Amino acid sequence: MRLKWVNKQNSTARSIALGTFDGVHRGHQKLLEETIARKPANGTSCVFTFDIPPEQYFRDELRLVSSFERRVELFRSFGIDEVVWLTFGPELTSMEAEDFVQRVLVNEVRATEVICGYNYRFGSNRGGDSKCLEEQGRRFGFSVTVVPPVQDANGQVISSTVIRRLIREGNISQAADFLGYYPMYRGVAESSVSSVLTFDVNANLVVPDLGTYLVWCVLPHNQGIPAIAWPSPKQGFEIALLDSGAVLNTGLLDVQFLARLRSDESGEPIETDVLRAQQLLPGFYLQDGRVVLE
User: Fold this and answer.
1) What are the backbone angles phi and psi of residue 231, rounded to the nearest 5°?
2) Radius of gyration, CA atoms only, the chain
3) Residue 211: which of 163, 168, 256 has the closest Cα?
4) Domain ranges (residues) in the chain
5) Which CATH number does the domain 183-292 belong to among 3.40.50.300, 3.30.413.10, 3.30.565.10, 2.40.30.30?
6) What is the dihedral of CA 135, 136, 141, 143, to 10 degrees?
């Protein structure tokens, strides 16, 4: 078992957040805040994670809010110093919880502060939990902080499972509120008929269901272009720019989903969708070429 690192530093003491962090939503962000706040003097803040969520590994079906690469970007953007991760597979499924603590957290990562969610489970048959971590912490000399659930104004616990459902249903505004940012996809844009581009994304990502959506195409140099998008027959979307005179280069592209314009396939002309999108655009807030929540 070999740990893989992003931005590894020569640190002998770490605060470390544990989890799979699919989507790095507002609940996850609370863990990251605690991890940074508890970073030891002359040490580093770190996230330990897996390439895929263990529960999806056992179901043999990947449906992710964010790719692993996107998760790493988000960790770093929120101020985490290092990311350490493992490919989830048979070796980990048979590792006892106590072995994981000693081999990974103590010997390899050198954790002095461990931060986890209220429902965190680990080890063979999910045999370890926060209580187990606290017991092992007393044995090996690290502290444990358990972060309670983060809820919305209606008392709904924010979770990756709920966000996946919201995105599939096309409930972009609620998904964005739970994530703390608008859902974004990185994919390859290619020319199609007339002014329409095809946009193919990672097949393991959850994408919105049928409908027409207002999106924002992120460009270099803090710029962007509004567009409308709708699901394509493949895993991805077709995109039409709102400004017929604008030019969007093909290739790798980030696309933020801002709102669903309509959920049906009523056959309305594209001009109707364009009008709805133009009416909604002034209500969004731009920062550094991206649309952000106020």
Assistant:
1) -60, 140
2) 21
3) 168
4) 4-147, 183-292
5) 2.40.30.30
6) -60
Inter-residue contact 255 to 184 (CB < 8 Å): yes
Band of pLDDT at residue 2, cut at 50, 70 and 90: confident
- A 10 A CB-CB count for 128 gives 23
Residues 256-278 pLDDT 10s: 999 999 887 666 777 888 899 99
Closest CA to 181 of 265, 90, 10, 66: 66
Q: How many angstroms separate the first and last alpha carbons of the chain?
A: 43
Give the pLDDT confidence of 105-132 residue by residue, as tens digits.
999 999 999 999 999 999 888 889 999 9
Contact 238, 198 (CB under 8 A): yes
4-147 folds as: Rossmann fold (3.40.50)
- How many H helices and E strands in the chain? 9, 14
Phi-psi region for residue 19, left (φ > 0), alpha (ψ -120 to 50) or beta? left
- The string of pLDDT tens digits covering residues 37-94 is 999 999 999 999 999 888 888 887 889 999 999 999 999 999 999 999 998 888 888 8
Residue 255 near residue 217 (C-beta atoms within 8 A): yes
